[in-house]
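To fix ideas, we give here one paired sequence and structure record:
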Amino acid sequence: MTTPTPASGCSEPLRRLLLLALLATPLTGLADALYSFEDANGVVHFSDHPGADARYRKVWSTPRRAPAHAPRPAPAALRKHIEHSARLTGLDPALLQAVAQVESNLDPAARSPKGALGLMQLMPATAARYGVRNPLDPAANLLGGARYLSDLIRQFDGRLSLALAAYNAGEGAVLRHDGRIPPYAETQAYVPKVLARYAALRGR
């Protein structure tokens, strides 16, 4: 649609329906915007390139999304611990960093109101289960979290979304909901956030 197009002989309701239909049509591959005006005879004209014709008014434009911010790289001091823990557990370092970023924003001293500690936000019982004596030690915390996540991935047959849901809500919660992501607002937001961060890190 590169030239003005009239909608002649249309009643007002029909012209409105035509406009709505045009606005509902996917135009992102054809034009960035759609313009319209109604002449003195009641004919509605549409164009995606009105030129200097001041009668046209924009009635639709392609939504513009703000560019996604790339996740910041882990500091070198943490990156070596991330890579070491990933290597010992067979995880992708980018996945481990994504979890740590979402859990604590890479803060080794992070403490949650629920009692989770450190980079991977280990609960005391989880830290004890994986032999993490000092959850605020970055190397120990990362390795404990990596071992836990690796076990969850195996438990849920490689289904990363379920493993992440279990990391956030506990494996019991996933099992109670028939192997689905539990319907908890925090967990429902957590899983796609980690996956998006993981994808962004892998694309670096």
Q: What stands out?
A: The CA atoms of residues 100 and 120 lie 5 Å apart. The longest strand covers residues 33-38. Confidence is low (pLDDT under 50) at residues 1-11, 21-30, 63-68.
